[in-house]
Amino acid sequence: MPPNLGSNNRWALQKRGKGKMTALAKPQAAAALGGASALRKNYLETLNLVERLHRQLLDVIKDELDRRDEREINSVQALLLFNVGDQELTAGELRTRGHYLGSNVSYNLKKLVEGGYIHHERSEVDRRSVLVRLTRKGEAVRDMLRELFDRHLVSLEAVGNVASDNLEVLNVTLKRMERFWIDQVRFRL
After folding, report:
1. Could you read off the pLDDT of 1-46 as tens digits, one per residue?
2. Is residue 22 part of a domain?
3. Residue 12 in domain
4. Which of 90, 94, 69 is nearest to 79 (CA)?
5. For the chain, what is the HEC assignment?
6. Model-level pTM?
């Protein structure tokens, strides 16, 4: 018979057998499972929020384009122009930095070139690469989004109840999740 371990633990061990845990391990396992289900719930909620937030951002951009009577481009294309910014990039760099899907970038770049928002030319260094940069028309859309985001900053804390330190913690967490997902793919975890 196992020794008495005090009033909090009647028995340190139960009968040993297949699939049985010690009496001491049961509360720890239950706590771990409870923690895992809380982690699971929070993780799945985060995945859902990230997806919804991206769609909502595109809706906010679309609303601004509609208010400015800009009907030639869509919100994805406007965000792409914003992400190009003042840089000269290859389509591959846009995919890497902007996290766009390959065919999505190619299609949208073609439309933006046709619409006069982006100038493109072959790289003199690597003739296989095409360099893109904004035209004056593209810069106007980029500036429109800068103004939109600056307007948001004015009321983000007062109306949205989101302070700078909230964003700092959020950004650190999202970067960690990004790194985790990159490692999942890279190392096939």
Report:
1. 444 444 444 343 344 444 454 555 556 655 665 667 899 999 999 9
2. no
3. no
4. 94
5. CCCCCCCCCCCCCCCCCCCCCCCCHHHHHHHHHHHHHHHHHHHHHHHHHHHHHHHHHHHHHHHHHHHCCCCCCCHHHHHHHHHHCCCCEEHHHHHHHHCCCHHHHHHHHHHHHHCCCEEEEECCCCCCCEEEEECHHHHHHHHHHHHHHHHHHHHCCCCCCCCHHHHHHHHHHHHHHHHHHHHHHHCCC
6. 0.76
CATH number (domain holding residue 71): 1.10.10.10
How far is residue 152's CA from residue 97's CA, in Å, rounded to a whole number? 23
Does a structural domain hold residue 189? no
For residue 164, which phi and psi values (nearest 5 degrees)?
A: -60, -45
Confidence of residue 65 (pLDDT cuts 50, 70, 90): very high
Q: How far is CA 169 from the centre of its chain?
A: 14
Whether residue 164 lies inside any domain: the answer is no
Structural domain tally of the chain?
A: 1
Among 46, 125, 55, 131, residue whose Cα is nearest residue 88:
131
Assigned token pair, 98: 């902007």
Residue carrying structure tokens 């009033």: 7
